Description:
Blueprint: E1 29-32, H1 34-38, H2 51-56, H3 58-64, E2 68-71, E3 75-77, E4 84-85, E5 93-94, E6 102-108, H4 114-117, H5 122-138, E7 142-147, H6 164-172, H7 196-211, E8 217-220, E9 232-233, H8 238-245, H9 256-263, E10 264-265, H10 281-288, E11 296-299, E12 320-323, H11 325-335, H12 342-350, H13 354-357, E13 385-387, H14 397-400, H15 436-455, E14 459-463, H16 490-495, H17 500-513, E15 528-531, E16 546-553, E17 557-564, E18 570-573, E19 580-587, H18 605-619, E20 623-626, E21 630-638, H19 639-665, H20 677-682
Parallel strand pairs: 1-2, 1-14, 2-7, 7-8, 8-11, 11-12, 12-13, 13-14
Antiparallel strand pairs: 3-6, 4-5, 9-10, 15-16, 16-17, 17-21, 18-20, 19-21
Helix pairs in contact: 7-10, 11-12, 15-17, 18-19
Amino acid sequence: MAAPLPSKEDWFDWEGDCPLNIPLDQLIIYELHVRGFTRHPSANVTAPGTYLGLVEKLDYLQALGVNAIELLPVQEFNELEYYQLIPGTDSNYRYNYWGYSTIAFFAPMARYSQAAAEGRGGQDVVKEFKTMVKECHMRGIEVLMDVVFNHTAEGNERGPTLSFRGLDNRVYYMLAPEGQYYNYSGCGNTFNCNHPVVRKFIVDCLRYWVVEMHVDGFRFDLASILTRAHSQWHKPSQSQTNSRNGNSNANGLQSMEEDLDQGIMEEGAGVPTGTPLTDPPVIEMISEDPVLRNCKLIAEAWDCDGLNQVGAFPHYGGQWAEWNGHFRDTIRQFVKGTEGPWAAAFAQAMSGSPGLYSQTEPAEGEWWANNGGRKWKGGRAPAHSINFVTAHDGFSLADLTAYNEKHNDANGEDNRDGESHNLSWNCGEEGETTTPSVLRLRSRQTRNMAAALLLSHGVPMIQMGDEYGHSKGGNNNTYCHDSELNWFNWEQAGQDETGYARFFRCLVNLRKQRPELRRCSFMDGGAMTWHGTMPGEAEWKEDTRLVAFTVSSPSQGGLYCAFNTSHRPQTVVLPHWPGQVWQAVMDTGKAAPYDFLEADNELSQDQVDTARAQMGMWTSEGCYPLLPYSSIVLEAMPEQQNQNGRARAASQTRSNRAGQATMQSQGMSRGSPESNALQHAVTSSQSEISSPPTQRQVDPAPAAGDRQT
Length: 709
């Protein structure tokens, strides 16, 4: 096939760019929507909502500490797929905002390009995308793409004919004998991924984005569909052809129904169409491809027909990691104090989910792992668990602590859409409130879930906006809103009135500094020890509300972490490590910025030392108090180093006393607002706290699908 040669204008200067190859266990992923990241007026960028707009804000991501961004779909999609006036509104229209309806698999989304907005051509759109990737790499940030190969924008038999249906409907879609579309995606059709033609198309597409666009990896939406047996067609025999010629219509054309009946092979892959395959050809091709096998490959290991392969997705020697939906559900259940086996499940989640990724014997309820997926069970590492508490579909982190129920009325579907399985707790009042006790509890719970995410073994994924407390007003299915409901609010993030943004930055920094939180293999019994209120006496009862653990590091001593998910305060006795003393690092029971003791532009080193010295009355006695629904991190320090810090704090205290004497001589009372500022910041009054309702045990379920439901 003839094609024009590339012109000089098509050339792009990569300036020596090459893959960063950050080890999987070192990743901290940030799930990001390109348009939503800089579309808000407060972004104050020259190219809002575009790849170049993202480039203008890369310094923010670098300061946050993440080293990988996972882009919601950026392959050309139909943003007007749902376009209509939302019922009950005058001017709000429904868009395909998330982008899970691909049209052109080899093209970056033009609407996300400043070049397209200025009327320039496709090559300039491509160059703008490449510029974004290059600039990310310059800042040590990898680029991962969320790709959709489970279905296309053509829908079912009533959908538009855009490409594949016209090229060869029988090859590209999974069809039943009478021509109906299988719908494992929940979006009307299912891409026939394991057909020889289709799987080559998928591999070619992925290679293009790696070789030509320099992306570092992919997250596969509803990846379990890529493991299902394809439907297969064959050419009819001569006798069948003659028979058809005798039954043609007035135009001499065979009816579709007759053609389907003559051509379908019900078991074209050797098993019924749609059967999950132990060795799916397309997954094997991707895993063994010389280009793709060095990329990050992340599976959303379930689909909309109930197939759940978390812990046993075909990984071909550990090539694939997985979104861990069990982690999400467990953290939510335990942190809000749900009755059930959640303390033990929480310990599993925090230690990298060894039951899913290390143990070869599947649990009784794991259908796939007990059948076709048994060969893929175990033999992997903590980094194969992509840990997340929230994602683009579902509640934001702030809404998890503010709403018991979804509030999706803005979608115009009478609140019928969206996931009802949210495992959230409003902390006593539904939605917005001014009640101080509820706000304090929500503040602690938000921090507790962030701490669980970033202290856990595995690869953490942060959802865009969670770091500053972005709320969607209880809407857990914002697929159709290209509005401030989804846009990143830079003004709110910059003001950081809640202190969440600083708390996230400090947690990320702690994770990057402490190798014991980034294990590349599962720990032996000595490196991670579990505790209760007493050292080494962990309890795993259904009413257990406190889980504590130590992780040791030969070079840095180690960390002590504890989570109290009871409505009662608790005091823990700390493990005794010879020659080491414990000092406070994080306490979600403290008001910001004293929730995280790290010297920065919010806290000086003197203030950090003073705050630690104040808690020394507890740690020197080998114990520490936890407020209801709070978590702590302490670090083991050499005793001499700790004494030096106390000496600095004592010196600062003497200086403060001298300053207070000066203030009093100038007429400022000891109890004035100025002199009480630090005291008020360090301690906050507590009032009665309502307990979450006791819930029956709920088996972990897949996240809501990345689409309208």
